[in-house]
Amino acid sequence: MRLTDGRTLRCEHATALVKGAPVRAVIGDIVEVSQPDDHDTGIIDEVEPRRTQLVRKDPAERSVPQVLAANFDLVLVAEPAGQVNLKRLERELVLAHGTGADVGVVLTKADLAASPDEVECAVAEAQGLAGSRVLVLAESKRDSASIERIRSLIAPDRMAVLIGKSGVGKSSLVNLLAGSDVRQVGTVRDGDGKGRHTTVSRAVVPVAGGGFVVDMPGVRGLGLWDADAGIEAAFSDVEELAAQCRFRDCKHEDEPGCAVRAAVEAGELAPARLASYQGLKRENAKMLERRDEARHLRGEKASDRRKRAAGRRGAGGGRKRR
Description:
Layout: E1 11-13, H1 15-20, E2 31-34, E3 42-47, E4 53-57, E5 65-70, E6 74-80, H2 86-97, E7 102-108, H3 116-130, E8 135-138, H4 144-151, E9 159-163, H5 170-178, E10 203-206, E11 212-215, H6 228-234, H7 236-242, H8 259-265, H9 271-297, H10 302-314, E12 320-321
Parallel strand pairs: 1-3, 6-7, 6-9, 7-8, 9-11
Antiparallel strand pairs: 2-3, 2-12, 4-5, 10-11
């Protein structure tokens, strides 16, 4: 943990914090820290409210969220230019939009693609999926201008989080943005341009002439957690059509006056995109139902959750902060 005076200190969570409010500090958090005289480590007494956070469903639990990073300004989703997984990108964009931060897509390893035409096609496909509000850029280590375009998104007062599956080139991109080899990278296979998983921990890396980027380990599981806002942003075209449906609770299946189905039949909306939207909405609804059931079984009330949140916001400080 880095303190405001620049020193680093190994820390652990206070027992009262863990028992009173099951919150764990994650990379990017601002925390209140104390260091008792009889301790060689710091004690995290409070985690301050987060501006933004990247959340997924905990892969090990049916109804528990897992926060991966906090207090960032930009989420960059990395996919390899020569092999973009559009279904995964779709889900990654939902998670990214759900943070409330700005969102961009970086197509990595463009220098390993079969041809410039393949890269252009990949950018066009990703842009069509991401929508006009999301910037899609191709990255090549042989093209310094492509690195500068990405670096320009991370101003000195901004922090970006880089997410993507293992082997897509995130650590290589971080090294290029930093201007030095600060992260270990794996070798790339000649056959398909895939790399080995090398990043095992999260790290905040300074960007040369800019802000900071968080290099995340490859995220395999992308379970949704309270993702309605992210789905609405990632599928803004479907949402705009849905606003024109005759019924507010239209499921876009066989209801009369459905503007979404009409757009599909007219060739204005791809059937696969509507199917993805409906599938993600169903998945999120089931997750919310399981979460509410779990809270009910624990005897947890909404008023109790609000009181705990208010207590965390009102706690005093005067101690060291990261």
